[in-house]
Write a structure and sequence with these properties.
This protein is an alpha/beta fold. It folds into 2 domains: 266 residues, Aldehyde Dehydrogenase, Chain A, domain 1; 195 residues, Aldehyde Dehydrogenase, Chain A, domain 2. It is built from 14 helices and 23 strands.
């Protein structure tokens, strides 16, 4: 049984009252670790530590901060296998993703943030007249709170903390109660790398430590990756604090008859909704829009591709799809299978849950890769984020109909377009109501490009300048 602690003011400490939460391995249903169940007292201590460290960190020359960020990147390189294994055990994200994709990418992200520190201190000069000069300068907000989800803790921790620290803020990270272990272990590794109080990690329930941090007057900026419902709750609790939200999605994946159908099949099936994290990603291509002329062919192709998925122990590098993260999320996803049946959706494949999906791991939270077909985009399974390996396919007959279906959603996070027609690709990039459009690819999120949404999918994105505010000065010469 592993025991993890908070990182507050450079010290590894339990929760103030000693309470803990169990971490459950979703592949087996067994408790494997305990993390602090922090509360208001822990929130107060974290904010106090972050505020105490702020003057020295924000006043440090930018290149000095870059030196520390590169040291963090070195920790990712040295401990990649350990961190990847902990995250896989904690949330079920398959090891071939955490080890081969996430950890190398996050090392690069911290190095990228180190290279962008000068952007956070660079301003503009405006000649207002012969005797008047205007200047702008960028300043950190102060204490930045990062609220991160359970589906990819290390990646979202890095996307927020690296750029916030680069900009001169001190940081408090509140990981999701379902999967905190990898981030808390990272805190142990970073305790002696960063100055005390510059980075603080506190785990616990959202309604306890999370709400206390969001409401705290000593927190100056909040960035959330999570559900739209959590975004609404934070908006109501945060007051006028500046916010960055990356929220839910119901992303369309649009396949045209001129597409490379082999690539499109891989893109809408393996790379989009099923593999990696069993559809538990905000950008999952959960709505597959297929041109009527290739409808039957694509359904056959998708079924064949899904049949080749390997469900099993996420720590096995041969596994291509893991379990649902928790009992609660498992029950939520399973409920949508019942909703689909009641709504009259046609089951193409899947629809199975529990021990029959992976008999060798009967205690795990398993949902088989599932596909339904419908013709009505207003159904709940088309409009609501399921956050599991459940996709719905809809036919279309024209570009105009495809665009209307794609945009007929309260969400606007991402979309995929599969076509060889360059003009069509550019039109859809222009007209799709979302933050990211992938053309002939899907779920590529390289550091250095903005990532965020529109509509109920949020606003803003994690980048150096998002963690600074501009100040103007007018000087009479």
């Amino acid at each position: 049984m592993m025991e993890y602690r908070n990182l507050i003011g450079g010290r590894l400490v339990p929760s103030a009252d000693g309470r803990t939460l169990d971490s459950v391995n979703p592949a087996t249903g067994e408790v494997w670790a305990r993390v602090p169940a922090s509360g208001r007292a822990d929130a107060e201590a974290a904010v106090a530590a972050a505020r105490a460290a702020l003057p020295a960190w924000s006043a440090m020359p930018a290149l000095g901060r870059a030196h520390f960020l590169r040291q963090v990147a070195a920790v990712f390189a040295e401990h990649a296998e350990e961190l990847a294994t902990i995250e896989t055990r904690d949330n079920g994200r398959i090891l071939r993703d955490t080890l081969k994709r996430d950890l190398p990418g996050m090392r690069f992200l911290w190095e990228l943030a180190a290279g962008q520190v000068l952007d956070a201190v660079r301003g503009d000069t405006v000649i207002l007249g012969p005797d008047s000069l205007g200047l702008t300068r960028r300043e950190p907000y102060g204490v930045a709170l990062a609220v991160i989800p359970w589906n990819s803790p290390i990646s979202t921790f890095s996307a927020k903390a690296a750029f916030a620290l680069a900009a001169g803020n001190t940081v408090i990270v509140k990981p999701a109660e379902q999967a905190s272990a990898s981030v808390l272990r990272l805190g142990e590794l970073l305790a002696d790398v960063l100055p005390p109080g510059v980075l603080n990690l506190v785990s616990g329930m959202g309604e306890d430590v999370g709400e206390a941090l969001v409401r705290h007057r000593g927190v100056n900026k909040i960035s959330l990756t999570g559900s739209t419902q959590t975004g609404v709750a934070i908006t109501q609790a945060a007051g006028i604090k500046p916010l960055t939200f990356e929220l839910g999605g119901k992303s369309p994946n649009i396949v045209f008859p001129d597409a490379d159908l082999d690539a499109a099949t891989q893109g809408v099936t393996v790379n989009s909704i099923y593999t990696g994290n069993a559809g538990q990603v905000c950008v999952a291509g959960s709505r597959i829009l297929i041109h009527r002329s290739i409808w039957e062919e694509m359904l056959e192709r998708i079924s064949a591709a899904a049949a080749g998925l390997v469900l099993g122990d996420p720590l096995d590098l041969a596994t291509t799809m893991g379990p649902i993260v928790s009992a609660g999320q498992y029950e939520r996803v399973a409920s949508y299978l019942e909703i689909a049946e009641k709504e009259g959706a046609r089951l193409v494949f899947g629809g199975r849950t529990g021990a029959e999906v992976v008999p060798g791991l009967p205690g795990g939270y398993w949902v088989a890769p599932t596909l339904y077909t419908v013709t009505d985009n207003t159904l709940r399974i088309c409009q609501e984020e399921i956050f599991g390996p459940v996709a719905v396919a809809l036919p279309f007959e024209s570009d105009e109909e495809a665009l209307a279906l794609a945009n007929d959603s309260d969400y606007g996070l991402a979309a995929g377009v599969w076509t060889r027609d360059l003009a069509r690709a550019h039109r859809f990039v222009r007209d799709l109501e979302c933050g990211t459009v992938w053309v002939n690819t899907f779920r590529q999120m390289p550091p250095g490009l903005p990532f965020g949404g529109v509509k109920d999918s949020g606003y803003g994105h994690d980048a150096v300048l998002e963690y600074t505010r501009e100040k103007a000065a007018i000087i009479n010469l």
